[in-house]
TrEMBL record:
Domain HTH lysR-type: 1-58
Cellular-component GO terms for this entry: protein-DNA complex
Name under which the protein is recorded: Transcriptional regulator
CDD domains: PBP2_BudR
Species annotation: Rouxiella silvae
Record InterPro entries: BudR_PBP2, LysR_HTH_N, LysR_subst-bd, WH-like_DNA-bd_sf, WH_DNA-bd_sf
PROSITE patterns noted in UniProt: HTH_LYSR
Keyword Repressor: yes
GO MF annotation, one: DNA-binding transcription factor activity
Family per record: Belongs to the LysR transcriptional regulatory family.
Keywords, comma-separated and alphabetical: DNA-binding, Repressor, Transcription, Transcription regulation
Amino acid sequence: MELRHLRYFVAVAETTNFTRAAERLGISQPPLSQQIQRLEHEVGTTLLKRLTRGVELTEAGKVLYEDALIILKLSDAALERTRSVARGMNGFLRIGFASSSAFNPQVFSLLHHYRDKYPGVKLEPQEKDMSGLMTALSEGVIDLAFIRLPCERSKDFNVRVIDNEEMVIALPKMHPLSRGESVALSELRNETLITFPRELSPGLYDAVIAACVEAGFTPKLGQQCPQIASSLSMVATGFGYALLPASLSKINADNVRCLPIAGQTITTQVALAWRRTSQGKSAKHLLNMVSPGLE
């Protein structure tokens, strides 16, 4: 049984007339009559009573008519959903985040704008370390990734920088240096630096160590935190200080004060990475928000 046969049958059932049904369908009457006869032959019973001035449904025809309406409605809905996904208006978008990039205001603003413009697309966020992000992107587990540069493996992908974010120093509020408007790294040469495992974000880790060396000392490393953002908790409890992207200072951490770095400007880049192969429409829409024609 073909969908077109059901459409023909419904048209005849609703108009109760082959001529009017043919006009509604935009076909001539003889082919319509033949298609209805084929449908009746396939079903194995008469669906329409042929009357002098039209037709009416048989008992079997009434049952098929009710089911045909449901089938055609589902078919039309499936077709529209498929077209909507193909246009990038529906479906899903799998987005990876480095552990600290999700706090970046440019990332937040971009995703907020995307959600407003394409509410039918379901965003599926995944947070991973940089190595995990690059592997997931390479294997197609995620469609796009917000990463921090530099990242050696990012050379395998298309990458667009979306923000240059300054680093700040996070100090316990009880620390004497936290009372100023800024603090020089050299003033912390004898303090303990709280870090995170380098594999979480190699570029960010190296930038932190390099900044200390540039300030004239090798940092005294303390306990490592499992995530970059959790460094704030260690600072709050007095274990030492941390160098963090400025966006992380927006996290509500009691007993912590984040200050600009005096005498040095240290930045970390937040970038969007994607595979060099063809992208789905939902991913292309996000890329076009970063830069028209970027995909």
